[in-house]
Amino acid sequence: MGDATPTVTIGHDMPPELAAEVSTALQRLGVNVEANGASPQRRTGKVIVVISPKGGSGKTAISSNLAVALAQRHPGRVVGVDLDVQFGDLGLALSLTPERTLAQLSRASQIDATTLKLFLTPSKHGLYVLAGADGPVDADSIAHAHVSTVVPLLAENFDYVIVDTPAGLDELTLAAVECASDLLLVSSLDVTSIRSLRTALDALDRMGVTAERRFVLNRADAKVGIDASDAEEAIGMQVSSAVPECREIPLSLNLGTPVVLANPKLPASKRLLALAEAYAPADAERAGKRWRR
Ligand SMILES: Nc1ncnc2c1ncn2[C@@H]1O[C@H](COP(=O)(O)OP(=O)(O)O)[C@@H](O)[C@H]1O
Ligand SMILES: [Mg+2]
């Protein structure tokens, strides 16, 4: 049977992001696209979802610092996603007032790489941010499927996708977890924070989540009758990074310049920079790919 639909082949010499965009545009015109006989190979970046069931444990502080620390090393190749769509403040932490949000994107007729690009806010710190929403009502239009579409698209176009989340494990967070290469688990040194993280991990285990896990103990030097080894025992994981109490962290969040940039010599900054190093070893510099705007 003859197939009237035309077919074109995209060569391997075309940069992958360009090939993807050309391929999407051609497919929209009803053209079959082949990449020298195979579907175009797309690299995907790391998707690091920052999780803590308890509010105030330091998710946004850690996400924003990790994102800018990675962007220092890989300018233009990092995107932060604010999935705390009701009350998120990742934009504020990075001194941004985003005009476009995930909520607006969720109401677009179609979500593809080209559309998504228009909804990102560039930051002077060398990264992009996908803001959540203008508030709880606006956030209502964002569903699991939007996150499942958007996060992998971002991972195809950036080396690091850092997802800040709200307290708990809501539907949108779970959608991000399903696309995650890495989970960054955050707890402060208090029994309720540690116990709720353990409960969340049990739920993730039952769901069969296999993303690589790291555990950040925030305010790890607090004198509260328990210490890091108690937390490790309760969580069943070694602490990857122990971030001490640091007065400059709230100050820097308020001023929109994360502490790793404002004062990299502080003990807390050094821990956060080492965390970024764990995700992006300096000697593992990868071939550049960035979105040009
Ligand atoms: N290590 C720390 N030392 C001092 N203050 C911190 C530290 N980590 C976070 N904070 C502050 O604690 C508050 C809650 O942190 P935040 O990152 O907003 O928590 P979450 O996003 O988990 O709700 C913020 O004011 C933040 O600046
Ligand atoms: Mg937060």
| Cofactors, ions, other ligands | adenosine-5'-diphosphate, magnesium ion
List the domain count as a whole number.
2
Residue-averaged pLDDT? 88
Described by strand count, sense and barrel closure, the largest sheet is: 8 strands, mixed
What is the N-to-C succession of helices and strands? EHEEHEHHHEEHHEHEHEHEHHH
Kindly report the CATH topology of the largest domain. Answer: Rossmann fold
What report would you give on this structure?
This protein is of the alpha/beta class. It has two domains: 8-42, no CATH class; 46-279, Rossmann fold (3-Layer(aba) Sandwich), CATH 3.40.50.300. The chain contains 13 helices and ten strands. It has an eight-stranded mixed β-sheet, with helices on both faces. It has a two-stranded parallel sheet with strand order 1-2. Helix 2 (59-73) packs across helix 13 (267-279) and helix 7 (144-157) runs parallel beside helix 8 (171-178). Adenosine-5'-diphosphate is lined by residues 52, 55-61, 218-219, 243, 245-246, 249-250, 253, 268. Adenosine-5'-diphosphate (ADP) binds at residues 52, 55-61, 218-219, 243, 245-246, 249-250, 253, 268.
